[in-house]
Amino acid sequence: MPKRKRNAGHAPLAWLIALALASIAFGLSYQAPPASAKSAEEKLDAVEERIGSAQEREGVLTSEIDALGDEISVLEDQVAELRWQEAAAEAELAAKQAELDRAEAELDEALERLETLRGNLRRALNALSERLVAMYTSGSPDLTTLVLTSQDYGDMVANAEYLQAIRESDESLAERVRSLRDETKRLVEVRRESKLTIEAARDAIAAEEQRLERTRATLETREGDLLSARAERENSLESVRGDLDQHEEVAADLRAKVEAQIAAATSGTPLPAGPLPTPSSSGLIWPIDGIFTSPFGPRWGSMHEGIDISAAEGTPIRAAAAGTVILLQSEYESGGYGNYTCIDHGGGLSTCYAHQSGFATSSGASVSQGDLIGYVGNTGHSFGAHLHFEVRINGVATDPLGYL
């Protein structure tokens, strides 16, 4: 928020002293203003000080609010990014859940198959056991027994084929038993791997959910703190601005009072110009005989683009150097500067004279150094007769003390 502009031509309490000294210098009788004027000046200075402090506080709070707003915006972006991550995580979790569902289904299927194979294994073991018992009880026929017990060659061939079939059946049964045993071991291993896969997936899901929850809680807490801090500063700013408005109203009343008191104590009669001062090394002369009261630079929250020289109203104003009058504005045209004159001296150098009570030149006129161009006054935003004097280089205000 831009700071409020102060009165361009305002000068401190030293004006009253300047008025008295200027009157003595010109041989005029001067009566000190009443004590009430001094009291009003002191009160105004105090109020101006409070206004300056309030404006500084206003600037600090405004900067802090802007900074908090920027931080909240960054945080909102982070929250939006987190929400995007949460959506991606939800999709990932859904995929993990589907993977778990498939793994559990495969495990259930494997367990069912394992039970079936275990039943087959038990039956095969029982059949093999029965076969071994039968072979032990009856004895296994050998080739000699087969030849001796055969009635003829055909019978011997038939018995040999039968014996071979029995042996092949025994070997097939033994191979089946071995196969079922290996299959059972493999399914047990599949069951173990499936269990590990399920546990790992569940751990990953739980960890991701916890991470998202912690991140969300941290961001929500931080966002709440920032919003509270901004609301607190906004309330403080509103209070400061309320105080500032009150101070401005008091200051306006005091300025009007001081202006009236000082105007009543000063004379509006033009004064003699006096001897021409010696030009400075920069070639300029002081535009009036008076007291320096306010410097160039920051003042009350704004830039004071000239210097203030206090003198009695009607004191002659001289051209600081020869040149051409390029600007001549009445107080109704220039605003806070009151009656205002600017002279172009060439080479980018110009001087300006504000708050005049009246003009002694015209727009476009050529003036010599020391020529009368106007009279000290109290027009525009001013309370108390003084000259606001500016030096500008290529239009940019520069400290006049560097040229006087």
Task: Offer a concise description of the structure.
With 404 residues, the protein is α+β, with helices and mostly antiparallel strands.
What percent of residues are in strands? 15-25%
Q: What are the segments in which pLDDT stays under 50 over at least 5 consecutive residues?
A: 1-38, 265-271
What is the residue-mean pLDDT, rounded to a whole number?
76
Helix content: 55-70%
What is the helix tally? 5
Radius of gyration: 54 Å
What composes the largest sheet? 10 strands, antiparallel
Overall body shape: rod-shaped
Topology:
Layout: H1 14-25, H2 35-138, H3 143-149, H4 153-265, E1 291-294, E2 297-299, E3 302-304, E4 307-310, E5 316-318, E6 323-329, H5 331-334, E7 339-346, E8 349-359, E9 366-367, E10 372-376, E11 386-393, E12 396-398
Antiparallel strand pairs: 1-4, 2-3, 4-11, 5-10, 6-7, 6-9, 7-8, 8-10, 8-11, 11-12
Helix pairs in contact: 2-4
Structural summary, described in words:
The strands form two sheets. Strands 1, 4, 5, 6, 7, 8, 9, 10, 11 and 12 form a ten-stranded antiparallel β-sheet that branches. Strands 2-3 form a two-stranded antiparallel ribbon. Helix 2 (35-138) packs antiparallel against helix 4. Helix content is 59%, strand content 15%. The two termini are 36 Å apart. The radius of gyration is 54 Å and the shape is rod-shaped. The model is unreliable at 1-38 and 265-271 (pLDDT under 50). Strand 7 and strand 8 form a beta hairpin. The chain is α+β, with helices and mostly antiparallel strands and 404 residues long.
